[in-house]
Amino acid sequence: MAPPRTAKQPRRAAEQTTSRQDRNARRQAVEEVDKDTDADEPIDAGYETEDNNVDPSQGTAVQNMSIGVLSNQAKCHIANKKQVKKKFSLAKTELQNNIITLFEEHEEQADTAHSAQLKRLADLIALKASLESQMTTKLAHLQTEYETHSRELSGIIEARIRELKR
Fold it and tell me: Model's pTM, two decimal places?
C-alpha cells in the first residue's frame, strides 16, 4: 500500500493568499510576508513536504500541473524583468543621447550668437573710432575758425576804438 499523500504547505503567511480580489489587498498581503524570505527565491522553493520519504513520482497530476504553472510563472516573471531592464536601458541611452544632442545644439546656438555679438561689437567699436576721428577733425576745424573769427573781431573792435578816439 502506498504511503499517505501529504499536502504541500507554503512558507508564506496565510494572509497573503486569502484575498486576491483587488490590487490593494494583494499589496497588503505582500507586505505581510515574513522578513526572512528571500525575494530571489524561486516560487516553488517555498513548498516543502512533511514526509521526506515521499517519492516525487507519486504526486498527482494536479500537483504536477501546479508545480508546472508556478515554474512557468517564474520563467515569465524573469523574462518580463529582463524585458523591462532592456527597455529601461534603451530608454536611458536614448534620453542621454537626446540630452547630449540638446546641449550640443544649445552650444552651437550660443556660439553663433556670441560670434554675432562680437562682430556687432567690433563694428560698433570701428564706428566709434571713425566718429571720434570725425569729431577731432571738426573740433580742429572749429578751433581754427574760432581763432580766425576772433582775430577778425578783435581787428574790427580795434579799428572802431581808433575811430572813436579820433
Answer: 0.41
**Which residues are registered as beta bridge partners of 10?**
47
Q: Is 10 left (phi over 0), alpha (psi -120 to 50) or beta?
A: beta
C-alpha gyration radius of the chain:
49
Q: What is the DSSP letter of 47?
A: E
Coil, helix or strand at residue 9: strand
Which long-range CB contacts under 8 A does 51-57 form with residues at least 24 apart?
A: 51/3, 51/6, 53/3, 54/3, 54/5, 54/6
List, for residues 119-151, the tens digit of each pLDDT value.
999 999 999 999 999 999 999 999 999 999 999
Domain map of the chain by residue range? 10-41
